[in-house]
Amino acid sequence: MSTHHDIILSPVITEKSTKLTEANQVVFRVTLDATKPAIAKAVEALFKVKVRAVNTIRIKGKPKQFRGRPFDRSDYKKAVVTLEEGHQIDITTGL
Prior knowledge:
Blueprint: H1 4-7, E1 8-11, H2 15-20, E2 25-30, H3 36-47, E3 51-59, E4 63-66, E5 69-72, E6 76-83
Antiparallel strand pairs: 1-2, 2-6, 3-6, 4-5
């Protein structure tokens, strides 16, 4: 049994995800086995907000090189969480 802190790993802070906050959406990096209902429940419990919808994206790791040595980046999953009107999350403050 995983806790809410185990499901949500970190917020994604990029230019695109910052622009999504205007549309009442927040982007989180989540575990690969997290489901949409589990993500919604974790966000509601941790941040005390109401979630309208959750969209998930699986990103495959890219092959890269470091000092001439090849390696693969890890696969990861992002969740775009849409909040109900009147609710917002300030991800810069932390948990």
